[in-house]
UniProtKB/TrEMBL annotation:
Lineage, uppermost ranks: Bacteria, Bacillati, Bacillota, Clostridia, Eubacteriales
Superkingdom: Bacteria
SUPFAM superfamilies in alphabetical order: Aspartate/glutamate racemase (SSF53681)
Signal peptide residue numbers: none
Cross-referenced InterPro entries: Asp/Glu/hydantoin_racemase, Asp/Glu_race, Iso_Racemase_Enz_sf
Protein name in UniProt: Aspartate/glutamate racemase family protein
Protein family according to the UniProt entry: Belongs to the HyuE racemase family.
Amino acid sequence: MKIAVIHTTPATIASLGDLIRSEIPNAEVFNLLDDSILPDMNGGYRVDWVRERWLEYAQIARKNGAQAILSACSTVGEFAQEANEMLDIPVYRIDEAMACEAVRRGGVICVFATLASTLEPTARLLKRLSQKQTQFCEIRTVLVEGAYDALMQGDRALHDEKIRRALAEQGAQANVIVLAQASMASAADGLPDEICAQVLTSPRLGIEKLRDDLAALDGEKR
């Protein structure tokens, strides 16, 4: 099984590759990285150009033999949905399984992100799923200032600490806490039990969905 992962930051390459190979032992993983996407999306002035090249990356992955594509970035998740409708192979967004679980739990869902460009796409996904499931959800958003800069400077410890501090300060009123970006998952380690039970991260849930869906497709072919 050849799986392409499209990244917008190098921070997700090793962790997602390891997780895919642990959950899908026969997977051959290859990565495409464009680290100019997030600056473009965060500025909000080159969104059409980002969409155009992301869809092209998906087509390149297909031509390179990918049997499935995973978008590792929540900010561009809606482009992954579009690619899924265009291509004859499945295209997954890393955060969809997390969002489904958040909506299933319902109540007040607080979305934390380290990039402003991620908040609205994640909130839109949650709203769409809540309407589809006719589940009441109140969606709130929190931007964790400075965490992404720390990560890009190689200081994951500071990145994680800023997120944990924000969770402690602003997550108390939430029924569900969503860490919107895959790169934020490490911040969930070591949280107090009462907070940890509320927190959802995308990597494991997203890869488990990928594994289960691909197994089902393989079963149908047989």
